[in-house]
Every structure is written in structure tokens, then in C-alpha cells.
Specification:
This protein is mainly alpha-helical and 116 residues long. It has one domain. Helices cover 84% and strands 0% of the residues. It is built from five helices and no strands. It is globular. The chain starts with a helix and ends with a helix.
Length: 116
């Protein structure tokens, strides 16, 4: 059961990462981010919200060890921490912040609880 969950959450990471990597404008719209005068915003979404999660998800699947899946959980926990920081420091301007935080925290918690 844990193996199935690990694989499923790694695939979720890869899938969501692929959206950020390959469709950064869509991701920016979803996150209510506007591209600026340069392409750096698109580059940042492709890298930090996209290919990073593709890479760590693929790495976890390739290594297929509890520590690899735990590291995937730590990455999601980092995203949740950043989101929580935004909620506390920047306020809740949209319910999407809470939803995204909840998803990030649940994925992180599941991976860490199952693999540490």
C-alpha cells in the first residue's frame, strides 16, 4: 500500500511539475501571477514550480527507496512552508492559498509519515 502511495504521489509531483514546466502562462494565470516586462517570471515558473518537481519526482521513482520518497515529501513540505509564510505575512487574498497549502501539507505529511 505504501509503495502504491509513493508512486502515485511521485506521479502527481511529476504531473503538476510538467504543467508548470511546459505551460508556465497557464500556471501563472492559475496562481494569479502576471508576467513582467521580461521572461524571467516564465523562467522561474518553469524552473521552481515545474521542472524541479518533475526532477525530484523522477528521482524518487528511479531510486525507489524510502529516503528518496521522504525527500520528495520534504520538497512538498518546503512548498507548504513557503505558502504558510505567505498566508501569515501577506494575508489571505484568495482561498486558493489555503487550498494549495492544504494539498502541499497533506502530500508532504503522507510522504514523510510513510517513509521516515
Amino acid at each position: 500500500m505504501i509503495d502504491i502511495m509513493n508512486i502515485a504521489l511521485a506521479l502527481v509531483s511529476i504531473g503538476l511539475g510538467a504543467v508548470g514546466w511546459l505551460a508556465p502562462r497557464y500556471t501563472m494565470d492559475l496562481l494569479d501571477i502576471s508576467p513582467g516586462g521580461t521572461t524571467m517570471g516564465l523562467s522561474e515558473i518553469r524552473a521552481a514550480s515545474g521542472a524541479l518537481f518533475v526532477g525530484i519526482g523522477l528521482g524518487a521513482l528511479f531510486l525507489a527507496t524510502p529516503l528518496a520518497f521522504a525527500m520528495l515529501g520534504f520538497a512538498w513540505a518546503g512548498a507548504a512552508l513557503g505558502r504558510l509564510t505567505s498566508i501569515m505575512a501577506d494575508g489571505i487574498s484568495t482561498s486558493r492559498k489555503i487550498t494549495f497549502f492544504a494539498v502541499e501539507a497533506v502530500v508532504a505529511g503522507a510522504l514523510l509519515a510513510a517513509n521516515l
